Amino acid sequence: MRSNVPVGIILIGFYWFVLTQSIADPKDCSSFIQHLPKNITIRESSPLNISIIEIRLNATAAPSFINDIYYYIHPDCLSNHFKSVQEGNKWSLFLQKAIDVEYIYLVENKFVLKDFQIEIKCGSYDSIVNGTVIDEDDNGPIFANTKSTNCTISGYSANSYREYTGQLETSPGGIEAADGDVTGNNVTYSFLYGEPFGFKDYFIINPQHGHVNKTREITEEDPHNFMMIIQATENSTLGRTKIAVLEVGVYENIPVVSSQVEANQAVLLVLQVLSGIIIMVFTFAFAYIVHHRIKKHVVSPKIPESVNTSKFDSMEAVTEDSFILENTIVLTESNQINGGTIKDSKE
């Protein structure tokens, strides 16, 4: 029996059937997830653009479900360090940017990166790949508490006096160095060089803690200015080193540290205001007392009446000074009337 269905329709239907069978099948995703590694290890010096995960897919299924594969990096700061690439039926995850543990600690998130995770999903399937980062010995010691200068060599300074022996107090802080690697090694200290010659006769350094001690008194004939180069060495196979400069000045007396004797400006201002108020109050009180004493000793003499004399309309006050000096009353107008004194005219 001959079919009436057009041939073209049969061909199209068969082609559709093949495509639908190659679309992301759960079995394909399941197989892909199962082939993922459980753990990977990356070093700070791992070469770039080399695959760290590589999975080969079914050649027929790959083109159809490759776009259903997603991955997420935890912590997120590592996301730009990886990229995925598909080449034919191969899916790969590449390291495209080196992981610097110290940079992440100091600049980005202030945490020590040792482990990370890659979450990979395909369809409804997912898996976690655990990653480990190895912090390599790629940084030397770093000095702390140093002077802020444009010089690449760290700097310290200290003052002492002739008779003093003991640990020096360095500025801007104590001599301290640490390995530049996050998982750092211990550091030891030593003198690498110094001036003048024979400086070790006066100073020693503690190899474990970096403290510099003055060991003897210095006479007037001895040097009074010293420069020492301190070397910090990490206890590792590579034995990386770093140097710093210490300058020491020796004085006749105990050097005065300005930060210890400098008065608080606010306190000085308050004291000055209080002093001014006290002086003002004292001045007004003194003036008040003097004014009342003078007023108390003012004398107003009585002038006797006389037919032979003119009337006195007023009499000037006699001050305390004239009273003390003469013990008499001095009148400001003439004391003679008609050729005689006031006393004569009264008689």
From TrEMBL:
Which SUPFAM superfamilies does this chain map to?
Cadherin-like (SSF49313)
Family matches, as CDD domains = Cadherin_repeat (cd11304)
Annotated GO MF terms: calcium ion binding
Membrane-spanning ranges: 266-290
InterPro entries this protein is in? Cadherin-like_dom, Cadherin-like_sf
Tell me the keywords, alphabetical order.
Calcium, Membrane, Signal, Transmembrane, Transmembrane helix
- Its protein name is Cadherin domain-containing protein
